[in-house]
Structures are given as C-alpha cells and as structure tokens.
Amino acid sequence: MAENSVNYREPGNYVNRELSWLEFNYRVLSEARDKTLPLFERLKFLSITASNLDEFFMVRVASLKDMVHAKYDKEDIAGLKPQEQLEKISVKTHELVTQQYSTYNRSLVPALKQQGLCVIENHEDLNKEQKKYVDKYFEENVYPVLTPMAFDSSRPFPLVRNKTLNIAALLKKKKGDEEPEFAMVQVPSVLPRFVELPVSAGKDGRELRNIILLEQIIERNMQTLFLNYDILAAAPFRIMRNADLTIEEEAEDLLQEIQKQLKKRQWGEVIRLEVEEKIDKRLLKILRKELSVSAEDIFAINGPLDLTFLMKVYGGLTGFDNLKAERYTPQPVPALMNEDDIFTNIRKGDILLHHPYQTFDPVVDFVRAASKDPEVLAIKQTLYRVSGNSPIIAALAAAADNGKQVSVLVELKARFDEENNILWAKKLEQAGCHVIYGLLGLKTHSKITLVVRREEDGIRRYVHLGTGNYNDSTAKLYTDCGLMTCNPLVGEDATAVFNMLSGYSEPLSWNRLAVAPIWLRNHFVRLIRREAANAREGKKAKIIAKMNSLCDKEIIAELYEASCAGVKIDLIIRGICCLKAGIPGLSENIAVRSIVGNFLEHSRIFYFENDGMAQLYMGSADWMPRNLDKRVEIVFPVEDEVLKEEVFHILEVELEDNVKAHILQPDGSYEKPDKRGKVLVNSQEQFCQEAVHMAKEVRKKLDPDPMTTRVFIPVESEN
User: Does residue 470 belong to any structural domain of this protein?
Assistant: First the structure.
C-alpha cells in the first residue's frame, strides 16, 4: 500500500483508551497468576489489580457516566460513543473480576494453606476454640466501635460512604407480624481488616496459622447488634462512587474550592456495587433501589470483597519472609561517591540518576544542602506528589527559615493527593515559603528544582530535572531517571519556567528545555517527521520511546506515517496504548512492549536516530493529550555523550527483556515472548545487578579491600 494513500486518522486504526487500560490490568493480574513468583508477591499483585480497578471506576468510568448524563455523544479516538464504551467496559471488567477471584480461590488460597496459612472465609467453619476467640475479640475490640443503622418509614436510607465495606441485614421483629426491615453496619476501617486466630493443627499434623476477615467476625455476632430481631439474612456489600473532581477553574480561592470538592467525593453517584455472590435477593433488591444502581454495575463476588486487604496480609503477617522476594537496597550514585559536596560534583559534569536502582538520597541532599549553604540565595521547586513525611518539604521549610528565597509550586489538583498537598502547601506558607498553586486551567506535572548560588565567578544555577515525583517513598518503587546539571543554558530555561509559573511570562524561545503546553507537542511532531524524512532519503532513521501511556491521536498518526516511510519504531509503554502494532500498510515497523515487574515502570525516555547524530530526551510527559495540551511538562535533552550511552543502555536492556515484557499483538492482545533456548533477560533485575556492580567497583578504587554489604539479587530461571 502506498504510504500517502493511508488515512492514518481512521477510527479503526486506534484502540479505545479504557479498554487498553483494562488490558494493562490483565498484565498485572498475570503476575499474580505466575507460579514462578514468590507466593506473597503474587498476593501483592492481586491486591494491586483491585486498587487499580477501584481508581479506574472512580475516575474513568465515572467520567464516562457524566458524559452520558450530559448527553455528550462525541466519539473517542476509536470511534466509540460514551455509552458504547461503558457497555464494552462492563463486559471486560466483569470478566476481569471473575479472573481475579478465580486466581484467588483456585490458586492463591490453596497455595497459602500448603505453606501453613489458612484464610477462613466463613465464620461457620470456625472450630470451637476459634469461635470462642472470635467472640471475645468482637466483644472487646469491635462491638464498641460499631454503629448499626436501620432503615424504615421514619428513618432514611443510611448514607453509604465511598469504598467502605458494609454488612446489609434483613431483620424481622421477634414478636409481631411486621414486614422485614433493612439495616446495615459499616465494617470499621479503623480496625485491622483481618484477625489472626490461635494456631491449629493441619490434616498433616503441621501447625496451621489462621486468619479471618473482620466482616466475618461481625456477621457472626450480628445478633448482639439487633437484640429484638431475628436476622433473616446478612451479606457484605461495597460501593464505588464518582470521585472525579469538578473544579471551577475560575474559583477565586483554589484551595477552598478543592477542599469543598473533596467532601463531595464521599457522596458522588454510585457507579459500582459489589455484593457477595450468595446475597439474599430481597437484600439486593433494596440495595439496588436505594443506591440507584443498574444491573450492569453490580458485581456478584465469589469471595471476600475488596482484595486490597491482601496488601495488608503481605505487610502485616510476620514469619513469611521466605515467601517474599528479598528487598533490594538502592545503591549510591558512582559520580557522588566521594568527599566533595553536591555542588562541586555537579560542576564536574552532568550527573545521571536512575531510581530505584540508585538511591533517591542525592535529590533530597541537593535540596537539604541548598537549604543550609550560606551561598545559596534561592530555591525553586515544583511538587506534584510528595511522601507523607517528606524530607524535601522539611528542607524547603528550613531554607525559608534560613533566609533563602523559596518558591514552591504545589499542584493541588494531583488526583487523590489533593488533601495531602493542601496540608503541605499550608505548612510551607507558614514556614515563609512563597507557594504558588499552579496555572489557571493547567496542572503542573513537571519535575524541576532550581538552586541559585553565589560563587566566586558570579551567580551559578544548579538544576535537577526528573521523570518522577519528588517523593522519597515512591522513589523506592518506581523506575525513574533524573539529571543534575549546572549548564548555564539549562539554568536560564529553568528560571524562565519558574517565571512562567509565577507570572505566566512566556519566553520567546528556549535554549534546551521543551515545555508543554505551548511548545512540546510541536517539538515531538518535528522530531518524528524528521525521522520519516530521513528514512525516505535512505538515511539512518529509528525511534525508541518509553513512557507510561500513548493515546494522543496526532502523535500516533505521525508514528504510523513514519512507520510507512520505513522508520523502525520500538515503543516501551507500561499502560495505555491506543496504537495498533504490526498492521501491514499501517504499522508493520512498529513494535510495542509493556514491562510489568517488581518496580512500577515510570520513566519517560525518547530516542531519535537523526541519521547517526542521535538525540536523547527524558522528561515528565507521556504522549497523551492531557500531558501535551493541559499540563505544564518539561522534556530535557541528555547531551553528555557518556550519559547518552547510559540512557540508551536502559532502552536496549528493556528491549531485550523476555521475562517481564509483554508484546502487543496485531489483534490487540499482549503475549509474553517465547523464551525457549534464549538467555533470560529480566531488565529490572539486570539494572539492580549493574547498580550493585558499579558501586562495588567505585568502592574498590576508593579502598582496595572494602568491607562490602551483601545485597541479594534473585536470579531468574525459566520454569
């Protein structure tokens, strides 16, 4: 097919983003089903699929329902109207939930029992000793916390909070012929979700540890809550509400507007109802009616509701370390393994950071050192998501206290972190920092820190740029890259970024940084088109792009055109991918892979061959409309030749991964590569090993006979 005869923008050439996201959650689920993984790691992955699905409903499904209510009929990238998307999502999510519980019931629960841990799923299965223990636990710990709520002609239906677990009951007065009444009790989230019971003997004579879920303890003792009634039926249920915040962008006080909207999140429209599979039909009928839930939004669950409790099992039960992967210790950054301070080291040359393989400490130390250094005049930083007890926040507050000019942009609209960020914003203001709450209509998603320092030869600007948040907790779990530099041209751009954020004074041009929403889209389009032009002229042309999500129609159309021009394109996309790969006449030169491993792939890296003069970029932006058009994002070049090689190596190893990679097929499914007869490559484990080796080599040079700390790196082997 001639390249110019293809309509690259035809809806049939694209995948719906929501269905693509569900495919991603299936890939996470495949880790829970992988019997080569330690058992508790599989529990963790199953828990992640459940929390992922919760957020998907609260935000994405909720948004589609809002569109349907508003009679918004515009088709998406794949030609589907909102109602059509909801119908397809309903089918796919019901299938996903069925597979989640099949994994839990058929694979994980029996495997746990084999390892000496029994999950008692029904209080009727308790032995005499366990019943006595459970009843005492209820009386002493649970009963005082519970608030039973009735529903009848004189009392309205109780308000059911978002994501809470509840037990519905059908009651009948012990004396009288009245109709059965509805009542419910919330399973208190302030108490542990599971309780460990006394050890019992298994069938093989071994000791068996037992846990039971809190809702089963409450259900067993429901009669004590309703003394004058007979309980005809009882069953747990859980609802999901619309939690997509609608912020009035013109609101005079964004802080107050968001606080107001956060309260509404608890009472939004019910968009999903989870019930026990064997729930009494009369109970279900009442719940459906009072919560206004349609049949397709009801999920009948064959097992315990809300599988996120498995993460608490993972972290809360001692004595099962043999069923977990040994923790990896992030390694020091070789360029910083010396006695010099951080500013001296940055002056020696740009420094590449690769988290979590290398520690996040240099980023914290950068801000902390700046806060104490008498020569530092100003610190400016953007914050999107920070940890609960952030050392960076503490350092910024200390800097203001030490008389530095501290400007911090806190993004209040960082989804599900709004409340946390409001607290930090207030704390920083109280410390004397100048706090900016972002730009009208835009989220600030860029990751940048600027330190202005007075030195002998004048003012010097030190800059940290990253692909991930300034969050010391997630930096141990997310793969991200960062660059520390004092390049004057980058420093000028960094100043321009903060001037734009505080006063929206747009510079006429940029030296090195590409910034959204004004310049970044055109920058990427120009780079892709250049590769296509080079391929047509027989020059070297190649694109490798790593990101979280790809769903921008214009970018995908440009990639299709480049593919048809002969450009070899490798995409490493963790989550959503609306592009179709390997389609003759459209994308036969495009390959897409997703890596789902122990760490969450989060870095964004973009490589363009440029006829042998390769250009490499990293940054905060995915190829999504929101990142390119509705957020402040920064993409920055990696120009040091040694560092370029290191970043390119990251891409090379991930393209060789045949253990944790899933390859996108032309039919839209993902398959693991065939490993038979091949050397196994697990990119995340290889990066761990390389980081340990590099740190060890530097220590050897510093001390020919060092006492090194043993770091366990699991070796992957084909099962």
Answer: yes
Q: Within 13 Å, how many C-alpha atoms sit on residue 58's CB side?
A: 22
Whether residues 443 and 352 share a domain: the answer is yes
Q: Evaluate if pTM is beyond 0.85.
A: yes
Based on the domain organization, do 580 and 689 belong to the same domain?
Answer: yes
How many domains does the chain fold into? 4
| Cα 443 from Cα 436, distance rounded (Å) | 12
Same domain, 492 and 366: yes
Residue 683, pLDDT above cutoff 90: yes
Cα–chain center distance at 55: 10
pLDDT in tens, 583-621: 999 999 999 999 999 999 999 999 999 999 999 999 999
Residue 474 to residues 152, 183, 330, 451, 560: CA-CA distances in angstroms? 47, 41, 13, 23, 35
471 alpha carbon, distance to own chain's centre: 13
Whether residue 31 is found in the same domain as residue 106: yes
Q: Calculate mean pLDDT across residues 346-368.
A: 97
Burial of residue 432, with CB atoms counted within 10 A of its CB: 0-12 exposed, 13-18 middle, 19 or more buried: middle
Residue 309 lies in a domain: no
Domain containing residue 296: CATH number = 3.30.1840.10
Catalytic residues: 445
Spatial distance between the Cα atoms of 192 and 220, rounded to a whole number of angstroms: 17
Are residues 543 and 528 in contact, defined by beta-carbon separation less than 8 angstroms? yes
Sequence-separated (6 or more) residues with CB below 8 Å from residue 507: 493, 496, 499, 500
pLDDT tens-digit profile of 639-661?
999 999 999 999 999 999 999 99
Q: Judge whether 184 and 152 are in contact, CB under 8 Å.
A: no
